[in-house]
Amino acid sequence: MKKGGSRRITPEHLMLAILDRELPDPAAELMERLGIDRPSVRERIRQAAA
After folding, report:
1. Residue 7 — very low, low, confident or very high, per pLDDT cuts 50/70/90?
2. Pick from 22, 23, 20: which is nearest to 41 by CA?
3. pTM of the full predicted structure?
4. 3-state SS string over the chain?
5. If pLDDT is split at 50, 70 and 90, which confidence band does 5 have?
6. Could you tell me which of 18, 16, 37 has the C-alpha nearest to residue 27?
7. pLDDT in tens, 10-42
8. Burial letters 1-39, b for 16+ CB under 10 A, else e
9. CB of 27 within 8 A of CB of 39?
């Protein structure tokens, strides 16, 4: 995932969008119930895509 404006939507883009959801969104509720550390996951995605 490069800065500068890719015209493609990648799996990384989709996962980052899901991670940004807030309650009462079902995705946010599920991540909360599963104990997912969203900031940590977000950072790992960004590092992997760099």
Report:
1. confident
2. 20
3. 0.74
4. CCCCCCCCCCHHHHHHHHHCCCCCCHHHHHHHHHCCCHHHHHHHHHHHHC
5. low
6. 18
7. 999 999 999 999 999 999 999 999 999 999 999
8. eeeeeeeeeeeeeeebeebeeeeeeeebeebeeeeeeee
9. no
Contact 23, 32 (CB under 8 A): yes
- Unique residue bearing structure tokens 């946010």: 28
How many whole angstroms separate alpha carbon 35 and alpha carbon 2?
29
